[in-house]
Amino acid sequence: MPTAIITGITGQDGSYLAELLLNKGYRVIGVARRSSTVNYERIEHFVDDITVVQGDLQDQGSLLSLLEEYKPTEVYNLAAQSFVPTSWNQPALTGDVTALGVTRMLEAIRFVNSKIRFYQASSSEMFGKVMEVPQSEDTPFYPRSPYGVAKVYGHWITVNYRESFDMFATSGILFNHESPRRGMEFVTRKISNAVANIKLGKTKELRLGNLEAQRDWGFAGDYVEAMWLMLQQDHPDNYVIGTGETHSVREFCEIAFAHADLDYKEFVVMDEKFYRPAEVDLLISDPSKARMALKWEPAVSFKELVTMMVDSDLARLKR
Ligand code: NAP
Ligand code: GDD
């Protein structure tokens, strides 16, 4: 039975990836950092099928112990300070977790067993002020937030350990992916949750920042399949994962409100508070390498994603 360690098990992607690996017959070890309140909402429906252990990307010793004790064949490093606006408020913490945390895990692998296959959760946020459209594995990076800068470090240290120590260290450059399990502060979930609240008469408005920002949004359940496929290849590499389509925040609002028979123009209020010091205006992927090499295709369309999220929040609030 192969063993996989997933950091960030309590997050959106950690929960979908764990389900996928359980279905494939893996023993799954999920790493959660210690907190005074347990936050297992996303994993509680299968928590008895995995082993949850304490560990923190800020603590080198905890990572070494984990690898020594559980002897994984694969490590998926999904943990990060992942919310872009917070990275301006806590830039040093973001760098410590999201950048240096990658080095700590790579060092742990190098010391314990350099044959362990490693996946790094890199991000389209690294493209930032995009140097070309669409963005592929060869597009130069121009990050626009401390988070993006930290992810560029995480990407290059992964490539460096691959080249320096011949480690199976792969970087997945994933474009935005969403789901009913997305954190409430990210724009897609903020919108779907607001639509449900407005529809049920609990609130009257939704305050948002830049409605013209464009993202290449896919479904998280499809994207974790790509992570797994990357670690099944003969060689480590970098892969861009996205849909190849882009949509604005405004379009997301239009479809989400219309799905509940509402007109977004009556409820959405622009609020400068949600503008960013530097914005990523347009992201759109060129996932042709992943299509060819991994035979990976997203299954859920943009419209299906939006309506799935609204339906899920409506059902949750009605319960
Ligand atoms: P998420 O829901 O925010 O989950 C982040 C996870 O990291 C949580 O489990 C969090 O634990 C954990 N974490 C934070 N700091 C930690 C630390 N110091 N030590 C150990 N764990 C820590 O993020 P996600 O959307 O699932 O994304 C997964 C990864 O992919 C992240 O690295 C993210 O940056 C990257 N990524 C995401 C997207 C996307 O669109 N979702 C796109 C590209 C890349 P708590 O629950 O305790 O906070
Ligand atoms: N969060 C948020 N809240 N974003 C808003 C709002 C708002 O009220 N109004 C407009 N936006 C715009 C932001 O300015 C941004 O351009 C876009 O919506 C998407 O914002 P987020 O959903 O917060 O995601 P992100 O693109 O900044 O970051 C996510 O995707 C990255 C991949 O590109 C995160 O998951 C990152 O961890 C990930 O790496």
Strands ordered across the widest β-sheet: 3-2-1-4-5-6-11
In whole angstroms, the N-to-C terminal distance is 39 Å
Q: What is the fold-level CATH name, i.e. the topology of the largest domain?
A: Rossmann fold
Tell me the number of strands: 13
For the record, the CATH class of the largest domain is: Alpha Beta
CATH architecture of the largest domain: 3-Layer(aba) Sandwich
Which radius of gyration do the C-alpha atoms yield? Answer: 19 Å
CATH homologous superfamily (4th level) name of the largest domain: NAD(P)-binding Rossmann-like Domain
* Ligands (ions, cofactors included): NADP nicotinamide-adenine-dinucleotide phosphate, guanosine-5'-diphosphate-alpha-D-mannose
Helical proportion, percent range:
40-55%
Based on Cα principal axes, name the global outline.
globular
* Number of distinct helices: 10
Per DSSP, what share of the residues sits in E-state strands of 2 or more residues? 15-25%
- Average pLDDT for all residues: 98
Provide a descriptive summary of the structure in words:
This protein has 319 residues and is an alpha/beta fold. The protein has two domains: 3-177 and 218-241, 3-Layer(aba) Sandwich (Rossmann fold); 183-216 and 245-283 and 300-318, UDP-galactose 4-epimerase, domain 1, CATH 3.90.25.10. Helix content is 41%, strand content 16%. It has ten helices and 13 strands. The chain has helices at 12-23, 60-70, 84-89, 91-112, 146-165, 187-199, 220-231, 249-259, 288-293, 302-318, and strands spanning 3-7, 27-32, 51-54, 74-77, 117-123, 169-174, 177-178, 206-208, 214-215, 218-219, 238-241, 247-248, 268-270. The strands form four sheets. Strands 3-2-1-4-5-6-11 form a seven-stranded parallel beta sheet, sandwiched between helices. The protein has a two-stranded parallel ribbon with strand order 7-10. Strand 1 (3-7), helix 1 and strand 2 (27-32) form a beta-alpha-beta unit. Helix 6 (187-199) crosses helix 10 (302-318). The mean pLDDT is 98. Guanosine-5'-diphosphate-alpha-D-mannose binds next to helix 6. NADP nicotinamide-adenine-dinucleotide phosphate binds next to helix 1 and strand 5.
